[in-house]
Amino acid sequence: MVTQAQKNDLKAPLGREEGDESPLYLQLAKQLKRAILQGIFPVGARLPTEGDLGKQYGVSRHTVREALRVLRSDGLVTSKQGAGTTVAQPLDTESDIHQVMSINDLLAFAADVEFNIDDVGMQTLGSDLAAQTGLGQGEQWLRVSGLRLDRATGEPQCRTDYYIHRDYASVGRILPKHHGPVFPLLESLYGLRVVEVSQQVSAVLLNDDLAQALQAEPGSAALEVRRAYKAANGRVIQVTVNTHPASRFKHAMTMRRVRA
Question: From CA 170, how far away is CA 236, in angstroms rounded?
Answer without folding.
Answer: 17
